[in-house]
Amino acid sequence: MDFLILYLMQYKLSDIAKAINGQGTLKNNIDISHAFIDSRSILPSNNCLFFAISGKNNDGHRYVNELINKGVHNFVVEKIPTNLVSSENINFIVVENSLLAFQQFAAWHRSQFVIPIVGITGSNGKTIIKEWLFYVLDGIKSIVRNPKSYNSQVGVPLSVILLESNHEIGFFEAGISMPGEMQKLQNILKPTVGIFTNIGDAHQENFENKEQKIAEKLKLFAGADLLIYSADYKQIDLLAQSNNLQQNARIFKWSVNGNADLNITRIISEQNSTQITGNYQLNKLNINIPFTDKASIENAIHVLAFFLANNLFSEEAARKFESLPSIGMRLELMQGINNNSVINDSYNSDLNSIKIALDVLKRQTQHSKKCLIISDILQSGEADLQLYAQLATLVKTSGIHKMIGIGKRISHYFSDNSIDTKFFRNTNEFLESKTIREFENEAILIKGAREFEFEKISDFLQQKTHRTVLEINLEALENNLNYFRSLVKPQTKILVMVKAFSYGSGSHEIAQFLEHQRVDYLGVAFTDEGVALRKAGVNLPIIVMNPEEGSFQNIINYQLEPEIFSFRSMEKFQKVLEQNYRNVYPVHIKIDTGMKRLGFNVEDADKIIEALEQFKYLVPRSIFSHLVASDEPEHKEFSLRQIEEFRKASDKIIAHCKKPILRHILNSGGIEHFPLAQFNMVRLGIGLYGISTKNTDKLQNISTLKSHISQIRWVKKEETIGYGRKGILKRDSKIAILPIGYADGLDRKLSNQVGRVIINGKSAPIVGNICMDMCMVDITDIEAIEGDEVIIFGQEIPITELAKKIGTIPYEILTSVSQRVKRVYVH
């Protein structure tokens, strides 16, 4: 979870220690104004407090020395680290559990405020309901809420700490995945109002039955004054009324079946909108929403129920329902014109979301120049002078070289002479200016309030390719990385393969993300791939797995580390070092134990030792091998034999080397199936991208290939579709033409109903032969219009399904997606 510094009311460090039951001698009882848990996103300050949280995938204690060097003096720890770089003026508060202490700290902070706090839980809709409540009430009250979907055991305390003295109401969602978690979140939030959205099957595997899960979620509302839910969820209704935790709460129910406080009498959906009619206290009321799907209708009624139950409904609120926004909840990174990178986060514009987005901008090391395009910050509840002073502080510490402000307020109040600033009255004035055409080789963050229509700026700046895109979910990528991290020992290093354009997912974008996630090594196939990463600012060690002799000088120039797989390559690289480097250089020795590709033979171990003694400039950084069939149970014995042969050969070589050497043989399948063979490094490849033959429920799909409908036409029975007249229709059919073909990576073997796509949640078979740039699908039984989104593969159509249908492997499907297909990276 990426998050910047949390700005607090100032607290004495001794008061914080008391609130979290911490021990320790404080050298300076200073005022704390900032708290944080992510060592990567900090503002060096003596007034910062770092909570060193130990998790299953990482341990904050590892970064204490790094933070001391950056100027942080105050820490909450479970143990004081040894070998400190400095102990002068460093304060340590020692606790039994850092996460629990952080939650206690948030609960203590929450206790300083006597304002309505709305807690929202349920299986689905939490984030959308929270954001719609904010949208309708915005401008009427000063509101605090979770950023994005921060609803976990860490996300909730992070969100609650955002409470400030000017806030009048808070909206906080809370999510759980197992029994015992909700009580911890209730202790933090102590909501006065509760909304229970619905109940479904999410995380059901951790509960005995649905009743147990409902009872667990209801714990959030202990002590609440008001509880809102739909009586149509009978299990929620029954348990809410019988649960003694809610005995003092007023219950407000809505229903489409009658006998509730709010009775919905009519729901009429047309093309792009829905009219909802209901009765409340003998009065008829109507709202219109710009959505037609069932989930959005239910979410909107929850919001309506909140406004009615709290006597907040008005004509102005009803008008707000008509423009409820689509909640994308995501930040997109894409290629821009003139070699720019564009970060589109125009979903909202408040200080907290600006902090998060600036952190993403800072990571775009492929560009030395960084620019922020930002609008007025609306309805913040703070005085403009103070608000834009805080923005100036953020901008000054974020490493940007230029800021473009759009709006009257930012133009008037923002002041910072340390960077280049330009201001425009509105978005159209900026679009018509020369400034928007002058961007070149920059990372550009677009951050604006909705009414400024910053999507026009994003459309102008992003690279113009056709609308077929490969969407990469970086949160899913992080989930998959953490899953494999959970399978290896804390001290085991992780090398991630990013060859072949990161398995089709992107080059420096994925590498930079992995660098931010603190992996230890990257691996590429060819030198050019490593050079591209270095030019993009990636600093991690990079192994080149298939170095060609002609690229050895570039390997040295860009500080890449070559695989050495033969005595010839060993001798050739030594000669280049003698001629042009004249110093020791790290290399990686490949032992072949059964793949019969590149590599020394196992029996070459003694000769390798002799050669390394002769070629003094070559210093082995690692010795490794490659399993042939790590994910195939029928070849388990062969894999075990490979591991044992590798162990013996590498033992012999290591015994003759003076410096420590890493060893690795496990790939993604090996990490899952042979945990005892981790040695001290593992290689993560296809598993990172969501492909596995084991524990597939733990991995998430990261790639979604999307297109859209270009045209719809009716074709009569017995006519043919496409080249070669292969698609003969058996009925009058409605055919959709899609702008994606085999040149984009849609394999021609999927032609003629072998393959399918998803349109509006339904399956549509591919008819006729796939063309170079287009294909045709049968949508006779699907309601669709031109422009509708089409899913080629993703969550609904797994890559493994496509691979199986055409007799190939998922690797080929991923790496075949053409470079002309735009990659969009989603946070």
Structure description:
- The protein is globular.
- A 15-stranded mixed β-sheet has the order 19-18-17-20-16-15-40-21-31-39-36-37-38-35-32, with helices on both faces. It has a 9-stranded mixed β-sheet with strand order 7-8-6-9-10-11-12-13-14, sandwiched between helices.
- It has 827 residues and is α/β, with parallel strands linked by helices.
- The chain has 26 helices and 40 strands.
Main beta-sheet annotation: 15 strands, mixed
Structural class: alpha/beta
Please work out how many helical segments DSSP would assign: 26
Average pLDDT for all residues? 90
| Number of DSSP E strands | 40
Unreliable sequence segments: 1-5
Cα gyration radius (Å): 29 Å
- What's the helical proportion of residues? 25-40%
| Principal-axis shape | globular
Arrangement of strands in the largest sheet: 19-18-17-20-16-15-40-21-31-39-36-37-38-35-32
Q: What portion of the residues fall into strands of 2 or more residues?
A: 15-25%
By oligomeric state, this entry counts as single chain
Cα separation of the termini: 10 Å
Brief overview:
This protein has 827 residues and is of the alpha/beta class. It is built from 26 helices and 40 strands.
Keywords:
15-stranded mixed sheet, 40 strands, alpha/beta, 26 helices, disordered N terminus, 827 residues, single chain, globular
Topology:
Layout (H helix, E strand, L loop, with lengths): L5 E7 H7 L11 E6 L11 E4 L12 H6 L4 E4 L13 E4 L3 H13 L6 E5 L4 H12 L5 E3 L9 H6 L8 E5 L7 H9 L3 E4 L13 H9 L7 E5 L3 H9 L7 E6 L6 E8 L4 E7 L2 E7 L4 H16 L5 H7 L10 E4 L5 E4 L6 H12 L6 E7 L8 H13 L5 E5 L1 H6 L6 E5 L2 H5 L10 E6 L7 H7 L7 E5 H14 L5 E5 L1 H5 L4 H9 L4 E4 L2 H9 L6 E3 L7 H6 L3 E4 L2 H14 L4 E8 L7 E2 L3 H10 L3 E7 L11 H20 L6 E3 L3 H6 L7 E4 L18 E6 L2 E5 L4 E2 L5 E2 L4 E6 L17 E4 L2 E6 L7 E4 L10 E5 L5 H7 L4 H6 L6 E5 L1
Parallel strand pairs: 2-3, 3-4, 4-5, 6-8, 6-9, 7-8, 9-10, 10-11, 11-12, 16-20, 17-18, 17-20, 18-19, 21-40, 22-23, 22-30, 23-24, 24-25, 25-26, 26-27, 26-28, 28-29
Antiparallel strand pairs: 1-2, 12-13, 13-14, 15-16, 15-40, 21-31, 31-39, 32-35, 33-34, 35-38, 36-37, 36-39, 37-38
